[in-house]
Amino acid sequence: MRSFAACLTLITMVSAASLAQAQQPAAPAAPAALSQKQMMMVERLQANALQSRLGLDVLESLTTEIGPRLAGSPDEARARDWAMAKLKALGFENVRIEPFTIPYWHRLVENAAITSPAPQKLYVTALGGSGPTPVGGLEAQVIGFPDVASLRAAPEAVVKGKIVFINERTVRTQDGSGYGVGVVKRAQCQSVAQSKGAAACVIRSVGTDSHRFPHAGGSARSRDGANLANAAVSAPDADQIARLLARGPVRLRLEIGVETKENAPSGNVIAEIRGATRPDEVVVIGGHLDSWDLGTGALDDGAGVAIATAAAKLIKDLPMRPARTLRIVLWGSEETGLHGGRAYAAQHKPEAAKHIVAAESDFGAGRVWRLETDFGPMAAPYALALHQALAPLAINPGPMQSGGGPDVGPLKELGIPVVELSQDGTDYFDYHHTPDDTFDKIDPAALAQNIAAFATFAYLAADSDWDFRAGR
Ligand SMILES: [Zn+2]
């Protein structure tokens, strides 16, 4: 970390150049400079964040004492109880659960094997929303496709009765864009294959690793009613199937058993630092509390829970309360369909105009490398001020457009400004939704940098009168 003041001139130039490149409407000429008090508080927050163990301790506690916490399960309920106790113990106010219900899906049995021509067990996991196979499994010939588009284009006659296998690779990227492409097959194989009379769907895991861990994922229940058996195999297993298919016909056996339930309990856990002078104005930061069930959800999204909680606690420990209310939201049931994000937006829609800005951390625990903002065109000076404040953490100015993180998507749809502190996701999809998403994968220094970044953003948004909607 360099001295904060020494950075300012250079940062202003860099930020201004970057903002100009973003081709947004012209901002007011004078950038909003940080006041002496803001600079002091930011410097203090960043120093404290980089020295504190609180985020790491929160994450260790969640992943150890609760472990996997599938949406709608008794484990997710234990996680809500854990969060209530933790947030109260840290001294936050208005700690509460906002409950909702979801369609529940849970794996019971998942087995797969190549039966011919070279028999071997495969490492497979059922994807969320998968239907069951007949008890004891099904066996069928495999038909391979490079992607969903080619499955869509295939005649029904060649697909009918076969196990569809999609072997599309996920490209490793810093910003996660490779996942955006790769995930299409996970979302669509089931319904497209079912419409052509396929026996089942097996995809190459949406991941960038070369280990024999399959990657889970998907919805609780398919929105279009598809219920075909739908599973992902590990990358080396996908390679093996592909090499055999290049030689001739291949047969697989697949057995999947699932349990489903309507109206399973879930909920968002909320805590606050009430604002000193404008308590009805709310700044939201958070992560999602649920995880897939194969690992302990350290990266996805225990890290987000820890980052938001620890950042808010650092702000709480300042001598003065911020002017606005800072609200931590730990969303439930993100993984199976953004249920918590939607429930929060529906419940708080009447107060949407009083939501100043929102941000979620849900991309692991890699270092934050840039700030994306989705503000009104006249709010550019506030983006510039945030860039200045974040520069000592080696965070670059990013584009003036942002999704803000999955669970704040529904808030963005209500017109609430969002930001995203973009994390380095180069390795994220090596572990994402696998049994390997565990606490040991966390880099404590990178986690602390994330907390410093969130504390900086949240403090400046909460202890100011900045209007991020300006010019809309
Ligand atoms: Zn997540």
Overview of the structural elements:
With about 475 residues, this protein is an alpha/beta fold. The chain has 2 domains: about 5-105 and about 265-460, Aminopeptidase (3-Layer(aba) Sandwich), CATH 3.40.630.10; about 105-260, 3-Layer(bba) Sandwich (Glucose Oxidase, domain 1), CATH 3.50.30. The protein is about 35% helix and about 25% strand. The protein has 14 helices and 14 strands. The strands form 2 sheets. Strands 1, 2, 3, 4, 5, 6, 7, 8, 9, 10 and 11 form an 11-stranded mixed sheet that branches. Strand 1 and strand 2 form a beta hairpin. The two termini are about 35 Å apart. Residues about 1-30 have low confidence and may be disordered. Zinc ion (ZN) binds near residues 288, 300, 301 and 362.
Global outline: elongated
Note the beta-strand portion: 15-25%
> What name does CATH use for the topology of the largest domain?
Aminopeptidase
Largest β sheet strand count, sense and barrel closure:
11 strands, mixed
The CATH superfamily of the largest domain bears the name Zn peptidases
Structural class: alpha/beta
Q: Percent of residues in helical segments?
A: 25-40%
Order of helices and strands: HHHHEEEEHHEHEEHEEHEHEEHEHEHH
Straight-line N-to-C gap? 36 Å
Q: Averaging pLDDT over every residue, what do you get?
A: 93
Supply the CATH class of the largest domain: Alpha Beta
CATH architecture of the largest domain: 3-Layer(aba) Sandwich
**Would you identify the regions where 5 or more consecutive residues have pLDDT less than 50?**
1-31
By DSSP, the count of extended strands is 14
